[in-house]
Design goal:
Elements: H1 2-7, H2 9-22, H3 24-27, H4 35-42, H5 46-57, E1 63-64, E2 70-71, H6 74-77, H7 88-93, H8 97-102, H9 106-112, H10 117-121, H11 125-132, H12 134-158, E3 166-170, H13 176-184, E4 189-194, H14 196-199, E5 216-220, E6 233-237, H15 244-257, E7 263-268, H16 277-290, H17 298-307, E8 312-319, E9 322-328
Parallel strand pairs: 3-4, 3-6, 4-5, 6-7
Antiparallel strand pairs: 1-2, 7-9, 8-9
């Protein structure tokens, strides 16, 4: 029966997507409601809505009461757009239309060891998003921002900034992690390095006129080519997911830029030795499908860092699905 449930996994994912797109979690408030009441608010048919709710309740997303009314659960609340730590946009991103085209070709990706995106759409993943799938690109941006905000909060709580005067956020996107660290420590100065188009759209707190702008440098560049930044602490969060050659180049560039004794924190998901392996191994396979990338194991990340001259002194959890590899430049 468990295998039967697994092979019908698409039905579960599609049900979560449908609930998010319909606005069902937002329509259901603190009080139990019937399918008929919810259907009237959402302008859908009550009987199919009841079937959707019942299917989701089997997985703990909503609960069906004895009288037939439905209530929220911890998971269904996370699908509300206004929920702290909302997974609304992430749920949509992981079930975007292109994913349903890509997953059935996983066997091809396993045979070839490369992504299937160009074969599907005639262009690379990000080219497709920006040229042909504007709606999906917006969902991607919102999902990444939502995920980064939560990770930034967890990272700020994790990092000990004792003795740190400067921090470099390498490939840091909008700089949410950097902003969190600067807000934690008023005497800290920071640098955000990412591609020019990315840095140009950094978090408003970091740009001219922003609350943190006086303590920040925004540096356009590609960390795989050069990292022209000196800092006491270098943070690389969820960027070492390309091919190993690119990862090696980035780590070597950190070592080349840093002074002896500088701290390096590599923050990654792990496909082993983690309480979130179902989640992270799924992300690992999706990376294979869409860009040919990969998540790391504890051993693979440790080995790549050691090879670059960054011996790992500790690996500690930042949250249930992110781990910090701690090192110092010799």
């Amino acid at each position: 029966m468990r295998l039967r449930e697994i092979v019908f996994g698409a039905a579960c994912a599609a049900s979560v997507r449908a609930a998010a797109r319909l606005g069902l979690p937002d329509a259901l408030g603190a009080s139990p409601r019937t399918a008929e009441e919810l259907a009237a608010d959402l302008d859908v048919r009550p009987e199919p809505l009841r079937r959707l709710l019942r299917a989701l309740a089997c997985y703990g997303v909503f609960t069906e009461e004895a009288d037939g009314r439905f209530t929220h659960t911890e998971m269904s609340r996370l699908l509300r757009e206004d929920a702290p730590g909302s997974l609304h946009h992430i749920a949509l991103w992981c079930t975007e239309p292109w994913t349903w085209d890509a997953w059935p070709r996983l066997d091809e990706a396993v045979r070839s060891g490369r992504d299937v995106f160009a074969d599907l759409y005639g262009k690379s993943f990000f080219e497709y998003l920006h040229a042909d799938a504007a709606d999906s690109a917006r969902v991607f941006d919102r999902a990444m921002t939502s995920s980064s905000r939560q990770a930034a909060r967890d990272l700020a709580a994790y990092v000990d900034l004792t003795g740190v005067r400067s921090v470099a956020d390498i490939g840091g996107g909008q700089g949410l992690a950097l902003a969190g660290l600067l807000e934690k420590e008023p005497g800290l100065h920071g640098t955000l390095l990412d591609l020019p188009d990315v840095v140009a759209h950094a978090d408003p707190r970091l740009r001219d006129g922003g609350a943190l702008a006086g303590r920040v440098r925004l540096v356009p560049g590609d960390c795989r080519t050069e990292i022209p930044v000196r800092a006491d602490l270098y943070v690389l969060k969820n960027i070492l997911e390309w091919d190993d050659a690119s990862t090696r180049a980035t780590l070597r560039n950190v070592v080349a830029a840093a002074e002896p004794g500088a701290r390096v924190l590599v923050i990654e998901n792990l496909v082993d030795d983690s309480p979130s392996m179902r989640f992270t191994t799924a992300m690992d396979l999706l990376l294979l499908l869409n860009v040919g990338g990969a998540k790391h194991s504890r051993a693979s990340m440790t080995a790549l860092m050691a090879e670059a001259g960054l011996p790992v002194s500790a690996v500690r959890p930042v949250n249930p699905h992110l781990f910090a590899f701690e090192s110092r430049v010799n």
